[in-house]
Amino acid sequence: CELVTKTPEGPQVSNPETCSACGFCSGMSFLGYLEVPNFTTDQIIAYLNALAKYAPNDKPSVVLITCNKIGKIPQLDGIHIYPLIAPCISSVHDSFLMIIFASGFYPVVFSPDNKCELRDIAKLRAEAMMKKFPGTEINFPYVEDFKELELVLKGISNSQNLERSYIPQDLPLSRSRRRSLMLWSLSEVSKRMVLNEEDEIPGVYEVIVDPNKCVLCGVCVRSCQMLVFDMKNNP
Length: 235
Prior knowledge:
Elements: E1 4-7, E2 10-13, H1 24-27, H2 41-54, E3 61-67, E4 80-86, H3 94-103, E5 106-110, H4 119-128, E6 142-143, H5 146-157, H6 178-190, H7 219-223
Parallel strand pairs: 3-4, 3-5, 5-6
Antiparallel strand pairs: 1-2
Helix pairs in contact: 2-3, 3-6
């Protein structure tokens, strides 16, 4: 977004008065520097932990991520559906999808209104969005049509119940925030099934430091806004 500028403290919105509040910058923010006030990482965690504690687990459960353009919530036998209303689909971050599944729910993203003024930015975010849980074949469906949504939900109704897990409250307090949530999700799901460790996550890269060239100047630590690097006092 042209309104997002880089600063020494991280990315910031340069002109909030002209911001549409679509949340695309937050949806693409790997660490969670940018947050939509009514769709924050902390709020998502509180919502999922409440569901994990109180929602019945007698059949497969879906967290339906949608927006306030939705007209009705589908009602199907053999499945529980819990709506999570976002300002826009473009504000949904990959870590949200991962913690939903790791908490014991199937995430489904639904963009219901093809006349919405934010539809193009929502589709752009959906194209970049994580398509499945890493290391598995569990898909994260994105649908735009109500009939297609019903088919997806019916397919999930034949899936197994997922074990419920609580998301540690201290995870979003770390500097890496959403990255910590993604790592927790991988660890939590690996307790239930064998993950394909060779599976690559689009947009996530492994950075390797060559110790023969590094002079410990610390420039990478100070300049990397993804908080990849760190310096420790050890041999």
